[in-house]
Write a structure and sequence with these properties.
The complex is a heterodimer of chains A (about 120) and B (about 230). By secondary structure, chain A is mainly alpha-helical. Chain A has five helices and no strands. The chains are: A mainly alpha (about 120), B alpha+beta (about 230). The structure holds iron/sulfur cluster (SF4) (2 copies) and FE2/S2 (inorganic) cluster (FES).
């Protein structure tokens, strides 16, 4: 058992499941968004606006945003523990990795709140 | 034939280097181990491991023209794949002791972690614990592993985390004990593998399957363990 404080669920299976489930959500979300443009007929701004501000799409966008956060954290956390380690970078490894993970957490949180603001700001 | 070999003697060399040898194979498609023996006649300072010379002991795993395998059962033509030059290097990802001999400690440490022995607290029967032919069949494709480390040292996840990721060989053996009907420590074994590194560092790259000289499939064993973990956690 190798423990770790910064993995999302502190458990391999949990992270693995999050990665898969969020990938499915994101996949379906992008199909829905692209699907709007692929539908026959002219895509006007008014239609697009109505589509994206419907409660369904707002909720779905929030779920997609949270899935994106989970997906990005698990994926990039894995990258950081593969490549930003003392084995690869020597003494600086731990510092570089912590800065990377901290920065990543900030960026993802910023995306979340920014996304909320946009979603509920658009009338 | 031209043979290029990775040479490094930590006592005398500042850095590893590649050394070329011209070998007369007598026109025969020799095994790579035979070629090494011929080189050794020319240059007795060359160090390599070998024992059984027939793919049983697992001691002469090395990297031949970029692919891991056992020198004793890989012919020149298989190794060079049409190229002029035979290039021999140590297994990647492990510290080099000398020339193509590597220090296997990290590999064995991972093997040790999976408790490679039967655990059974029930009273031992008078003669032996019996298995039905079906129960025994489940060990096929697992027990044949000779721990040559060809798979684990071809796995990028092991290169990056050799102290945390068990690696394909260890995980294949973990599964071998998990599904053995005579072992009843299944849940402890599974619990030990449930962290983000031990098993879940496997990214399904399948380099391991590609090189196993015994034709075993560690990726599949890892998949079976993952399904069992999923089964018990959801
Ligand atoms: S699984 Fe195959 S390649 Fe890996 S150690 Fe066993 S025999 Fe060697
Ligand atoms: S399938 Fe998994 S264990 Fe095998 S080489 Fe790829 S990452 Fe390593
Ligand atoms: S010498 Fe034993 S496996 Fe090659």
């Amino acid at each position: 058992m190798v423990t770790n404080a910064t993995s999302l669920g502190r458990n391999g299976l949990y992270d693995w499941l999050i990665q898969r489930a969020s990938a499915v959500v994101l996949g379906v979300y992008f199909i829905c968004v692209l699907g709007f443009f692929l539908c026959p007929g002219e895509a006007t701004f008014a239609d697009w606006h109505a589509y994206m501000t419907s409660t369904y799409m707002k909720v779905f966008t929030m779920i997609a945003l949270i899935s994106f956060m989970g997906h990005a954290w698990v994926g990039l956390w894995t990258v950081s523990t593969d490549y930003l380690t003392s084995l690869q970078l020597g003494k600086a490894g731990t510092t570089v990795r912590m800065i990377f993970q901290g920065g990543l957490a900030l960026i993802l949180l910023a995306y979340l709140f920014w996304g909320v603001q946009i979603l509920w700001g658009v009338k | 034939m031209l043979v290029s070999i990775y040479r490094y003697n930590p006592d005398t060399d500042a850095e590893p280097y590649m050394k070329d040898y011209e070998i007369d194979t007598g026109g025969k498609d020799l095994m790579v181990l035979d070629v090494l023996n011929l080189v050794k006649e020319q240059d007795p300072t060359l160090a390599y491991r070998r024992s059984c010379r027939e793919g049983v002991c697992g001691s002469d795993g090395m990297n031949m023209n970029g692919k891991n395998g056992l020198a004793c059962i890989t012919s020149i033509s298989q190794a060079t794949n049409g190229k002029k030059k035979l290039i021999l290097r140590p297994l990647p990802g492990l510290p080099v002791v000398r020339d193509v001999v590597v220090d296997m400690t990290m590999f064995y440490n991972q093997y040790e972690k999976i408790k490679p022995y039967l655990i059974n607290e029930t009273a031992a029967p008078a003669i032996e614990r019996l298995q039905t032919p079906e129960e025994r069949e489940k060990l096929d494709g697992l027990y044949e592993c000779i721990l040559c480390a060809c798979c684990t040292t071809s796995c990028p996840s092991f290169w990056w985390n050799p102290e945390k990721f068990i690696g394909p060989a260890g995980l294949l053996q973990a599964y071998r004990f998990i599904i053995d009907s005579r072992d009843n420590a299944t849940s402890e074994r599974l619990a030990d593998l449930d962290d983000p590194f031990s098993l879940f560092r496997c990214r399904g790259i399948m380099n391991c399957v590609n090189v196993c000289p015994k034709g075993l499939n560690p990726t599949q064993a890892i998949g079976h363990i993952r399904s069992m973990l999923l089964d018990r956690a959801t």
